[in-house]
Amino acid sequence: MHVHKKGFWMRKAQTWSLDAMVATGMFIIVIMSFFYIIQLTSETSKADELLREGEDIQDILISSKPEESLSIIVGRIVDENKLNDLAKEDYENLKKKLGVRGDFCIHFEDDEGNIIYINESTKRAGIGSSRVYIGGIACS
Predict the structure, then answer these.
(1) Are the CB atoms for 127 and 94 separated by under 8 Å?
(2) pLDDT score for 122
(3) What angle do CA 115, 93, 120 make, to 5 degrees?
(4) Parallel, antiparallel, or unpaired: how do β-strands 73-74 and 62-63 relate?
(5) 3, 18, 32, 37: which one has the fewest Cβ atoms less than 10 Å from its Cβ?
(6) Does the predicted model carry a pTM greater than 0.70?
(7) Domain assignments of the chain as residue spans, ordered by start
(8) Average pLDDT of the chain?
(9) 60 near 52, Cβ under 8 Å?
(10) Does an H or E element contain 138, and which?
(11) d(CA 52, CA 9)
């Protein structure tokens, strides 16, 4: 029996290359799945971080102590002088003071969800980034 026939070696080579292609394809699918899962986890982390920053800003701005420098609401009353001082603050400087990395907008709404303007004459809706919109109105 002669094993060195041309047909015998061709079938072996074809089988090996098909196995290699299937293994390579499976490897690529596993790698892509791994990166997809990491990306989903990262997006969840970003959402959690933004939520945490929002809560931190709220804690800083609402205080029971009137001597807190950045608190604009003491108890249930808005200190208009502190609100105006905060509105005059440079946005990037305010981000540093609040310890925030993301964009934000501090705004007020009435019981019906209507925006209460920080400055009625200039129609300034809030304090923060002009890239943030509240109900279709730019923050500042």
Answers:
(1) yes
(2) 83
(3) 25
(4) parallel
(5) 3
(6) no
(7) 6-138
(8) 81
(9) no
(10) strand 137-138
(11) 65
- At 40-82, the pLDDT tens digits run 776 667 778 878 888 888 888 887 666 667 888 887 888 888 8
Return the residue matching tokens 């400055």: 119
What lies within 8 Å, CB to CB, of 63 at 6+ separation is: 71, 73, 74
Pairing of strands 105-109, 126-128: antiparallel
Cβ(106)–Cβ(87) below 8 Å:
no
* Kind of pairing between the strands at 133-134 and 137-138: antiparallel
CA distance 65 to 62: 9
The neighbouring-strand residues paired with 46 are: none
Report in angstroms the alpha-carbon separations of 113 from 37, 61, 110, 116, 130.
Answer: 38, 20, 5, 9, 20
Residue 22 to residues 14, 25, 28, 36, 118: CA-CA distances in angstroms? 12, 5, 10, 21, 63
Cβ-based burial of 104 (10 A; exposed 0-12, middle 13-18, buried ≥19): buried
